[in-house]
Specification:
heterodimer, A: alpha/beta, Rossmann fold, 2 domains, six-stranded mixed sheet, three-stranded antiparallel sheet, 9 helices, 9 strands, about 40% helix, globular, B: mainly alpha, MetI-like fold, 13 helices, transmembrane helix (chain B), transmembrane (chain B), MetI-like_sf (chain B), cell membrane (chain B), MetI-like (chain B)
Chain lengths: ~280, ~300
Amino acid sequence: MALEAVMQQGEAETAGSAARPVIEVENLSLTFETADAPVYALSEVNLTVNAGDFVSFIGPSGCGKTTLLRVIADLEHQTGGTISVNGVSPEEARRARAYGYVFQAPALYPWRTVERNVMLPLEIMGMTSAERQARAARYLDLVNLGGFEKKFPWQLSGGMQQRVSIARALSFEPDLLLMDEPFGALDEITRDHLNEQLLRLWERTGKTVVFVTHSIPEAVFLSSKIVVMSPRPGRIIDVIDCNLPADRTLDSRESNEFAEIAHRVREGLRAGHSYDD
Amino acid sequence: MTTEAIAGPSKSTPGLLSRAFAGRSGPLAVVCLAIFVLWYLGTVWLNAPLLIDRYEREGQDWSITGLAGDAMAMERPILPAPHQVVEELNKSILQRSVTSKRSLIYHAWVTLSSTLLGFAMGTLLGIVLAVGIVHVNTLDRSLLPWVIASQTIPILAIAPMVIVVLGNIGFTGLVPKALISMYLCFFPVTIGMVKGLRSPDPLQMDLMRTYSASKVQVFWQLRWPSSVPFLFASLKVAIAISLVGAIVGELPTGAQAGIGARLLVGSYYGQTVQIWAALLTAAAMAGMLVAAMGGIERLVLRRSGARP
């Protein structure tokens, strides 16, 4: 209850100005030096993500949304501008284990059972075996995978594997979740189901989520803020506040409000001339 | 509908022959049979000139059947017949106590002990080198060429030197032979493990980075488990050439015991039957060692979640 209250307060404050910023990006650019010509992956990106926000990066392939997420996670380093996560550099934030990262693929370790995959970060962070056991059980339950503890990854479907990877990211209870197209490889039905679960999870825990996607309905359905990006060079063209009611369900996607926001996202994407080439 | 209706009338039980050929035993038996036939033909063909020489010297009449019979019963044939080798195996394995110096089991054990010691040392050395090569940039560039160069030297050329030098500083018996085994068998382990330790995909490595895991943690939680399938592939090669190393190590010293010593003594006295018996024992040992390694591999991989 308390968490939910904090989360809702956070959301209310987003509209105002006093919300606590978790990620602050200023004039960020990143250029990959390649053999022939430099690739401008990100250019002049400015962005603030506040505590409790659910922010989606949306844009066509190659627009730098994954790169931006990787810079936040300190998996990539910017070539210009500044970025802070929880008030410190991404590297310090990473060392402080400030975020959980969910990749495009589940990236489970095939020699570990489902349960031991979820325990992996806990082992690395030096938790006691009893604590590890309790956390694994709790978070597998949360993603509806109770009873699959002793299975190996190959015995699970793609959607279940991705849920294990979400449980693994949640298990050490980071306040910030970075998700890179986590449902991109899944079928529509599984994807809808996981979207709803993720939304409920976000409501319950009040975590800050940064979510990369190229699906407009997914972005509108999940987000409190949508960042529309365009490629070559990767830049932000629009930031859309998205305040659908907190208790929205998949059916809310048929509401007028939903259609309006989706329309604005589509307009933004079109304005980025991203379909010219 | 019942399943029976779908399946239709059940087929009659297939005969013994067709059942044997449906599995692996049938083809295997055919190949074995072919080898025996070729071997017998070879025996007659290779031993015939010697026998014909003798017949002519003694002015004896001879027929093809008599020749074939004689060719398979010579005391020192060029190529002994299979049944002669089997008889020798029976004589030197089953008919003697295992502690006897004339028992092949005794000699096999002598060779096996240095094989296993050399294999253990070689595996350890191979893994240590691979870990170094994967983690230290300088070693990556400096060590691998030497490792490869080491294998281009014929082992027969350096084995006598190793034995003599070690003998001079007081190492005789087991250790020098094990060192030659080690010299041969560390190589596939190093090559396999370098590949295995580098096999984690970028996503799996990134995951470790997001946890800010230490190098040691990355090694034990990711690199080592990913390399296990590669390790076993290498170990199966390593254990077989480890045996070769041990036998080669027994040749130059005129060692008192071991499969190599039996081969050497056999060739001194032209005891070809004894040589073939020793060779077959070595081959059977190699087969058993590789099979045992395969068994351990299956056990370990099943425990770590490999698909059955």
